[in-house]
Amino acid sequence: MANTLQRALRATMARRFSTQALVETKPGEIGMVSGIPQEHLRRRVVIYSPARTASQQGSGKVGRWKINFLSTQKWENPLMGWTSTGDPYAHVGDSALTFDSAEAAKAFAEKHGWEYSVKKRHTPLLKVKSYADNFKWKGFPKPAEE
């Protein structure tokens, strides 16, 4: 009896999580069934790889890609002088939408039906430096020209 019950349970779980149970979605279809208001379905987003901050020494977040929503619904709050917005997606990209590659971010944007533009990654040119170079002989000083 227990074996029959276990087999029935495994068969149910296999059916529930099988590839036949997954629904094929077309690009842009996710937003239509997710309950997002119509005015937010056709959004413009920017896909970019953020630069390291000036104080960041490690390489923990380098190479990650983010999606940021373009928003024009901003105004300055007269009481405190803060920037206010009526856009519910104004801060979503900065905190949540992080991807390992630009292709993954593009696929996510296409899946939700968003128009996107990709900013080219800026890679700084690093010069080889050594502390000993501060004390190296650089030759005689050049005479001052008059």
UniProtKB/TrEMBL annotation:
| Predominant location category | mitochondrion
Keywords from UniProt, A to Z, are: Electron transport, Membrane, Mitochondrion, Mitochondrion inner membrane, Respiratory chain, Transit peptide, Transport
| Localization per record | Mitochondrion inner membrane
Q: InterPro entries, per this entry?
A: NADH_UbQ_FeS_4_mit-like, NDUFS4-like_sf
Please name the Gene3D superfamilies in this protein's record: atu1810 like domain (3.30.160.190)
On whether NADP is a keyword of this UniProt record, the answer is: no
- Which Pfam family name is an example for this entry? NDUS4
Q: Which GO terms describe its biological process?
A: electron transport chain
Protein origin, superkingdom: Eukaryota
Membrane-spanning intervals of the chain: none
Q: What is this protein for, i.e. what is its function?
A: Accessory subunit of the mitochondrial membrane respiratory chain NADH dehydrogenase (Complex I), that is believed not to be involved in catalysis. Complex I functions in the transfer of electrons from NADH to the respiratory chain. The immediate electron acceptor for the enzyme is believed to be ubiquinone.
Q: Which PANTHER family match?
A: NADH DEHYDROGENASE [UBIQUINONE] IRON-SULFUR PROTEIN 4, MITOCHONDRIAL, NADH-UBIQUINONE OXIDOREDUCTASE
What does the similarity note say?
Belongs to the complex I NDUFS4 subunit family.
The name of this protein is: NADH dehydrogenase [ubiquinone] iron-sulfur protein 4, mitochondrial
- Organism listed in the record: Vigna radiata var. radiata (Mung bean)
- The encoding gene is LOC106765762
